[in-house]
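In the current project phase, we have settled on a layout for protein records. One protein thus recorded is set out beneath this paragraph:
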Amino acid sequence: MKKKNILTLVTIASISALAVTGCKKADDATNNKQENMIIESTNGSTDQDIDESDSNTDTTENEQSESSDAEARVDNNKVAEEDSKTETSQETSANEDDKDPSNTTAKAEVELPIYTINDESLETEDAIAYVSADTEITAEVIVDEVVEAFSANSYEVKIGSVSQEGDTVIVNFMKGSAPVTGVGAGEEEATLDCISYSLLDNLSTCKKVIFRIDGEAYMSGHIQYEINEPHMTGNEN
């Protein structure tokens, strides 16, 4: 009987030990499971934070890059606008300089008194030509201005050459053109007078004006001269 009681106690003690051990293992498993959940939660949060941080970093870098590009475009536009304004200002200044008669960079002109033919009366009349101030007034320049004045009245006179020999200016007309042919006696005479007056009035060194045709003596249907015979003389003093 005593032996049976001892076995019963041993059995009860073993069962109690097993129960305690089982509870401890269950608690340990529970604790381990909770720790794993905490770690996973922490790791998940950390990964999410890292992803968000990377995303924010990329966004910030993109925004900064876009901002830099925008600023560069604005700067380029400003430079282009300033260059355009500078060019416009320079062009405007150049145009104003051309229009301003007082501007020293503009070419100055001087008056050259000449004679031309009145297109109604066909008589000589005073006229004014304008030449550059730095132009040397020669016999050729004077004759060219008279011929240009004729042309303004649709009267075309063709000159072969103009030369000055001492105090004599020789004007050589081209054959087959006015005033040698195609004009009346009055207009021919007025043509020779306009050229002669213009030369004598503007050249103090000119005392005689001789007209020729292609290097030969002047001879037309109305007027005839010897090869060295002057049409007009002046400036004797």
About this structure: The longest helix spans residues 2-99. The CA atoms of residues 35 and 41 lie 10 Å apart. Confidence is low (pLDDT under 50) at residues 18-26, 41-46. The chain has three helices and seven strands.
